[in-house]
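sanity check this chain:
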Amino acid sequence: MSKGQRLGRSRLLKLLEKDDAPQPVDSRAETLTSQVVVQDDVVAVIRDVFEGTSLLSDQGKVSRILAVRTEINESWGQARDAFLSIGRALLDLENVLSKAEYLKLRSGSDRLFPFSDATATQFRQIARAVESGRIPMEKCPGSYGTAYQITLLNDQQLTLAYERGLIRPDVTRKEIASLRKEVMPPANDAARMDLAALREERRRLVRREQQLAQDLHAVRARIAELEELLGFRND
């Protein structure tokens, strides 16, 4: 081997030792970004999830994972748009109907719609929160159950949730529930919440009483009409 060749290798070693020397190319990173433009954090997640496997060297599998991820994210966003649309429609209907009619609607919710009154209540609560700006549309979770948990946060909890980056589309119900458990409302807030619930229950019962009174009046009128037709006489 010639001296010139040895010097060439020596120079090469010196180049490799320099901080600005070209770094080896990670073929797996090239695989991840060769056909699909993705965010760095997505690349990091895929690397972490499939660490220890040969998947990163299989361009077809990586591309398939990215494509399915995109499809699921789009569908997840559509699911969010769907329950927000339902919530807004229910709010509009609430404004159109009388109190008695609205109570009838709620009692027959599972017969009119493919969900119960409890679920309808959650849809309305989420729609109100988004319309008021309490939950920004672009940060509303794709799961209505998780979004509803956010509507239950008081002002202190909601502020903390924003500070911790929990108001985001992919937040989990467990994360929100943990925050609610960690930051319990003060005793006086709890009392106010109980009073509010009691007032709401009273209003609901008053409306029901009024409706029952109307129904009873109609029943008595019909009974009197039938008795007259049948020739019944009062003794």
In short: The chain has two domains: 70-184, 186-235.
